[in-house]
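Bug #77: duplicate submission created two jobs. Keeping one. Sequence:
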Amino acid sequence: MDKNTILAFVLIAIIIIIYPFFMPKQAPVQKEQPVERVQDVSKDISQDQVNVSDSISDHPLIEPALTAGTTPDSLRMFLPEEKEIRIETDLYSALISTKNGVVKSWKAKHYKSREDTSKVIELINENTNNLNTEIYLKNGSVLKDVIYEADKENIVLSGSGNEEELILTCKDGTGKILYSKRLKFYGDKYSFDLSIDTTPIFAELSDAGAVKISWPDGVKYSEVSDGGKNLNREDYYRATYYKSGDNFVEYDNNDDTEKVTGSIEWGATRSKYFEVFFAAHDEKLSSFENYPAYADAKAQFTSMGFSVGFDKGKTPVKDLLVYFGPLDYETYKSYERGFELTMNWGWNIVKPFSLGIYWTLKFLHKYIDNYGLVIIILSLLVNTLVLPFTIKSYKSQAEMKRIQPELKIIKDKYKSDMQKQQAATMELYKKHNVNPFGMCLPTLLPMPILYGMFIVFGATIEFRSAEFVWWINDLSLPEIMFTLPFSVPLYGANVGLLPIIMGVTMFFQMKDSMTSGDPNQKMMMYFMPVFLTVLFNNLSSGLILYYTMGNFYRIVQQKLTPPMEPLQKK
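Kept job's structure:
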C-alpha cells in the first residue's frame, strides 16, 4: 500500500471521528419572503385567567370547556369524560385523547423496539402529550386543555384509499360548539390531515397568533437499549426545522428557544430515524417556535419540540398536513413539499455519492432480499468500476520503484538546488514514461464512496434492523460477537469479528504492495490494520462489510496481476 493510500485512510479516519461533532447544517439560501425574528414568546394565559368576554354573548360559559380541575362544581355536569380513541392502520397504532385532542401513543408497526425486540417502537414518551391546540381570543383569554366530545371510539383502516375522519368538538357549558378539531386518517400513510374549525368564535379570535398547534415533547428516541444506553449516537441528529419560501433553517439543541414569524410553509422535529412535520395546506403558517430538549432525565432520549401558529386571517378553518413516521427519502419526495431537506447526506461534495449509493442499494434490494448480500455486490461493483484505474496505479507504483536508484542519484547530485532537482526529476519521468500522479486517482476515487457509505448507513432507516447472517442481525449497528468485562479506550468493550477480518485482510493487502526493505512502509503495514480495526469496531457492520469485501477483492486482484517487466533503458 503506497503512501497516498495510507494518507487517504488517515484522512477518512479523522473525518469519521470528527464528523458527528460537526454535522453539516443546511445553509439557508436567499429568503424569498422576509421572516421577522421575534424575541418574546406570546403571553401564555393560564386557566385561571380565562374570563368570559362580554362580546361572546352567544357562548356565556367558556370556562366549563376547560380542565375539570378548574371548573366550578356546579358546572362539571357539562364536561364530557376524558376518553382515548385508538387509531389502527397498516403502518401505525395510535392513541388520541379527548383531552385537548393530543397524541398519547404512536407505535410504528414495521420497526422493532431496541429495548424489547418482541415489541414495536413507541415514539411518544409516557405521560407526555403532543398535538396540543390553543385558541387565543381578543380579550386575552386562551382556550386550552379542553375536553372534547368525540364522534368515534376507534378507527381501523387498511389499504390504499381507505380513510376515516375523527371529529373532536369543543363546547361551552350550555352545549354550544366553540370550535372543532378534525383529524382525517389514511390506511396506507403515516400522515393525516388536521383541520381546526373556529367558525362559531371566528369574530372573537385574536388577530395575531389566533391558533397554536404544538408538539412540545418531541420524538422519543428509537435507539435506546434495554440497559438505557443509546446505541446509535442519536443525540447528534436532534434538530428542528422550518421552511419559508426558499429559506430553510435548522436549529440544533445548542440553540436557544427562538420564535420566528412570517409566511412559513412547514415546521419539523426529528430524532435519528423518525420525524414530525406540521405543513400548512393553503393558508401559510404565521409562526414557528423551537423548544430545546429539557434537562431532565426523560429528555436525554427525546428530540426537540416545536410549535406553529396561524393568524386569524380571512378564513376560520385552519388546515395542516401532519406527518409522523420514518425519515424516508422516497416518501418525502412524494409530498413535493421539500421534506427531504431535513435528511442529512453529508457535505455537498459527498452528497452525490451518498445519494448514488442509496439508490443503488435500493435498486439491488428489489431483487435481493438480504441487504448484506446487496452490500457485498455493491462493493464488488465499485471495485470493478475502478479496476482500470487501480491497475494503472499498480503499474505507476512498479515503475516508480524501478527508477528509485536514478532518483536517488538526482537528489544527491542536486541536493542544494531544488529547482534543478525538480527539473532533472521531471526529465527522468519523461524519459521512462512514468506518471507520478497515476497512483493518486485510484486511491482517491473510492474515498468519497466509502464516506458516502458511512453517511448512508448512519442515517437511512432502510438498514435499521436489516439482518445479514448469524449474529450480524442489524447492519446499522456495530457488530457484537461477545462483550469484554472491561472497556478498552477507543475500542470499547464489544468485540466484533468483521472488524478483525477487515484488519487481517488489510494487512495482507499492504504486505503484497509493500516496497521491499522500506522501514516506513513496514511500520505502517503493522500500524494501519490495528488502528483501523480499533476505529471501525464501533461503526456500523454494514460499512465494515463493504470495506472488508473491498480488501478481499484487491488481494485477489494483486495476486492475479502479472508482475511488471523491467523498464528498458533508452
